[in-house]
Design a protein that fits this description.
- The protein is of the alpha+beta class.
- About 40% of the residues lie in helices and about 25% in strands.
- The chain contains 11 helices and 12 strands.
- A 7-stranded mixed β-sheet has the order 3-7-8-12-11-10-9.
- The relative contact order is 0.16.
- The structure holds adenosine-5'-triphosphate (ATP) and zinc ion (ZN).
Length: about 300
């Protein structure tokens, strides 16, 4: 008897995900891209009344900014670094020999000044720091990036490379709190308009190690992170598709982001896991876009 195809098998057979042979590393087919495009435009419309500044960064970030961000304190296990060849001709011959005989050819690779971006908002804080003093109303930035996290898995929603869209608010504690409240409402309205059953829950980041447990408890006690959960994998364990984060003055201190009155800026962000939301739509509405509810189609593609 044939084994029942897994959710991942079905996504691949349906042409939505294109396997590469590496867990959590996929190409995307036309239908998935069409949904991601609609989703991206929908998120733009949901936030445009606030007139955010739109910026985009490549998926590689500055290694020195990354070191300063303290990401390695909480998440050394997720970090990805870019290494490259910097040897002479003899070293080149050695690389080719290793490939030929199946030995490790990467041993001579050296770390470059680029790391892989772990979350879309990370390049925003040093960008603002380099600009100098902030206006009284603070800043609001719209950013999207391919992100890398070293968490290989055969669960389709846990990818090693994925797209994250964020709105990032930098300002007084009151401004950031109001921003997060607004996006908790807007995020739920957006997902409801897409016909997706969901719930909001208090959450914590997956900090590393024993100290990480304390950091996670602290984050929960202070209610710094909420997630919007949707059933995507059909396992009964819903997946975090959006997160609403308050960093207090963590990034403000690191980057010396000061408000005009001299106080350190607080920061917060709302993050949309683009592939996770798109896969949730396929889970709940099926693989044939033409048969999705008319209301959902109109929300995603108002002009077609
Ligand atoms: P999780 O608890 O599932 O590991 P997270 O809380 O670490 O996720 P965030 O750091 O808040 O996630 O990232 C913002 C958003 O990016 C998440 O809400 C999710 O939608 C998406 N995301 C995070 N990790 C992944 C991943 N490995 N693959 C795909 N999307 C992801
Ligand atoms: Zn963020």
């Amino acid at each position: 008897m044939d084994a029942i195809p897994s959710w991942l098998d079905r996504l691949v057979a349906g042409g939505l995900l294109i396997p590469t042979g590496v867990d959590g590393l996929y190409g995307s087919g036309a239908a998935l891209e069409r949904v991601l495009d609609g989703l991206d435009a929908l998120i733009t419309r949901a936030g445009e009344a606030d007139r955010p500044e739109r910026v985009r960064f490549p998926p590689g970030a500055s290694r020195s900014d990354f070191e300063a961000s303290e990401y390695l304190k909480g998440f050394p296990h997720f970090a990805g670094t870019v290494h490259s060849f910097c040897g002479d001709e003899r070293a080149h011959r050695e690389v080719l020999r290793c490939v030929e005989v199946g030995e490790d050819w990467t041993v001579g690779q050296r770390a470059t000044d680029i790391v892989l971006t772990p979350a879309a908002c990370y390049p925003v804080y040093p960008m603002l720091a380099r600009r100098g003093p902030m206006p009284a109303e603070g800043c609001l930035v719209d950013v999207l990036s391919w992100c890398f996290r070293r968490e290989p898995s055969n669960e389709p929603t846990r990818m090693q490379m994925f797209r994250m869209r964020e709105y990032v608010r930098i300002g007084s504690p009151e401004q950031v709190a109001a921003f997060r409240e607004r996006w908790l409402e807007r995020g739920q309205a957006l997902v409801a308009a897409l016909g997706l059953p969901h719930a909001i829950d208090l959450a914590n980041d997956p900090f590393f190690g024993r100290v990480g447990r304390l950091l996670a408890d602290n984050q929960r006690a202070q209610q710094l992170k909420f997630e919007l959960l949707i059933e995507v994998n059909g396992t009964g364990a819903p997946t975090a598709c959006l997160s609403f984060n308050y960093h207090l003055d963590h990034f403000g201190q690191i980057w010396r982001l000061a408000l005009p009155d001299g106080t350190v800026a607080h920061t917060g962000c709302v993050a949309f896991g683009m592939e996770r939301i798109a896969l949730a739509l396929f889970r709940h509405h099926g693989f044939d876009l033409a048969h999705w509810p008319e209301t959902v189609r109109r929300v995603l593609w108002p002009k077609s």
